[in-house]
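Q: Second attempt. The first request was missing the SMILES, so the protein and zinc ion are both included now.
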Amino acid sequence: MPELPEVETTRRGVDPHVVGRKIVALAVHEPRLRWRVPDSLPAEVAGQRVRQTGRRAKYLLLELESGTLLLHLGMSGSLRVLPAETPRLTHDHFDLLLDSGKTLRFNDPRRFGSLHYTTGKLDEHPLLKRLAPEPLDDQFTADYLLRITRKRKVTIKQLLMNSALVVGVGNIYASEALFRARVRPTRQARSLKRPEIVKLTRGVRAVLSMAIKVGGTTLRDYVGADGNPGYFKQKLYVYERAGKPCRVCGTPIKQMTQGQRSTYYCPSCQK
Ligand SMILES: [Zn+2]
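A: Got both inputs this time. The predicted holo structure:
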């Protein structure tokens, strides 16, 4: 499943191909995505220029002259920039045809992705207005993390992965950030001391930034986001490294199940 870094990587890959371009047409081949693409949408966006791209949580945003397109990759969605005449594949659900002769084509076998258009204020859009802070934005501070940890009876890893509190921190990133902060994933969130919270805030930012940076270098015309962390794996400290020596102290990395997800940690480095 595409996580925040993959969506951001996709945004950066798409950006130079779409910004400043005029939308010639939106061709919807299969409107039945997670939410049905409205029949009125192609007429609303045709003829508009793309002003800029953006991202909120896992929504990719295309800001047009009169409104904004919100695109979600769902579980299995990907975007490619292709010459418009490229034959379609199965599961290619829409084409955003541009005046450059290229198309931004959306493929999604499981159809959990979505496409919305709004002319209203973005932060009041029903899909966006209740989203928690972005881990790479200024609102995600040690003070914020400290505040949300105090009253909750959950482990710190489960708290990090709760998208109502912080968006976009999936299993890999939570595990890696906790290693960087030297905090065990099973600790009660409210037991963390301020210095640990400070390190954890930095750890979350560092691991997401690294994933985006590494992902960005693998882009060609295919700007897919299949959630495969292969390119990223040699940089990981604990995730999927059970039994292998800790890169810091040499102790074998442990694996356990936590909230039905695999958790990895170094029993020596993480307290
Ligand atoms: Zn270690």
